[in-house]
Amino acid sequence: MSFPNGEHPDFVLAPGICGIGSDRDNQIVLSGGGIAAHHARLEVDGRGLTLSVLDPRGHTHLNARPVREKGIVRLGDVLSVDTVQIVVKPERDEVIRTAVPSETPSSADAETRARAIPPKVVLRGVSGAQFGRIVAVRGRLTIGRGSDCDLTLDEPEMSRRHAMIENNGDGIYLRDLGSANGTFVNGVQVRDAVLHPGDQIAFDRNRFLLEAPGLPLRGELAEERSPVHAPAITQTMQAVTLPDPIAGKPKPPPAPVAESAASRNEIWWLIAAAALIGGAIALLLLFGF
User: Fold this and answer.
1) Comparing C-alpha atoms, which of 76, 172, 193, 163 is closest to residue 120?
2) pTM attached to this predicted model
3) Residue range 161-178: mean pLDDT, rounded
4) DSSP sequence for 111-175
């Protein structure tokens, strides 16, 4: 959690509950007449980050929208506690990869390929004048203040041609088009960036959530995925020499037990006895004794 105006040192959220308020028992202690003793709290668990407002009389906003009770917080969100702004961002800016491949040449073939890419990548407005709007990213989407852009954002911090989002089928990339202020991805100011589903992209006051069903999330690599089922073992394992826990010496595997002559004789006696009993029963049935 970063404080752009320096009201508090940056704070790293850990799993559990983080209290925000003016009282000293909070994890984040803030001063100000509009900040309650126990103003709000953030809870980090396996589901993500949740904001709970503890004092409804206080002013609490998430991306400039008032929160009365609860709200879901994502990376890149701006939490306002009275007049104190808090940016929720990754612990390290380096997690946002800024090395993007060279731009796909602008040609008829590239345009044909872009039209063939299904509109499975969209931007969903989560704050600002574009709140609730869904914008499909088919191939290339130019963003800026100019009327010739695919997505026009008439904001003071926007350049005429600000940035471009490219969906070329191999990945999703943010490319700067010579903007004056850059773009924020998950609260980190960048020029170019590799994008992933769930990323929040901020252009001045307009924030968009990138949605791309089926594509891996940030940090979710194929080699990190564990198989759902363990492979079946079909080959026979050889005997392993184990250490003797008492003597500390290798203990050979037990030798197979040889079949004794007495055991073989007992088996033949059982077979003979069963044959005699079977013969006696047959005679009784035949002669009616």
Assistant:
1) 172
2) 0.67
3) 91
4) HHHHHHS-S--EEEEEESTTTT-EEE--EEEEEESSTTSSEE---TT--TT-EEEEE-SS-EEEE
